[in-house]
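Crash report, auto-generated. Payload:
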Amino acid sequence: QVQLVQSGAEVKKPGASVKVSCQASGLTSDSLYWVRQAPGQGLEWMGIINPIVGSTFYAQKFKDRFTMTRDASTTTAYMELSSLRSDDTATYYCAASTTTVPYFDYWGLGTLVTVSS
Amino acid sequence: EIVMTQSPATLSVSLGERATLSCRASQNINNNLAWYQQKPGQAPRLLIYGTSTRASGVPARFSVSGSGTEFTLTISSLQSEDSAVYFCQHYHKWPPAFGQGTRVEMK
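Recovered output after restart:
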């Protein structure tokens, strides 16, 4: 059974950075994904990371301020978003697929990041 | 990039009636489509992938039809627990993308 455990909610000021973790267990594929959802809005795919070897692929929109890393020893993925703006206020989900195909069978509970002065 | 468009934005359906949700892709995605259900305060839940394969535990009243660029999610007999937002997502090529969602509410 895949489990994705995310870190807790964060409140940050504009211009700051935030780092969110996602500890995975039971993965059957080699990919973790990050998806964000602004309040009352739809879902945006941000990027994919292989938690074992650390390879990454970013959505074009997030290439500048978004960084994914991992700790292979704990199968934990991290996402860091820098130069935060108010429109970065969102719930950030990590998600996983049981196959190599990027639809998402498993989701973390989400981490709410609030950017406010 | 492929753009996914869902309609309507909100659908009001009576208990036991049929709900029909549409999803359109800006180009041919073959059958590389998934549907998710999201209830307030929860993460999305995978319902159906590969056009018509239901994920584990998903009731048979959920079905999908279509191919290419036009797809339909049908809830054959709406139950109270089906009130939620439904998203389609293509995975035909990078980047995967979601539609903006259809909210299904009880009339």
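Post-recovery validation: Chain B has no helices and eleven strands.
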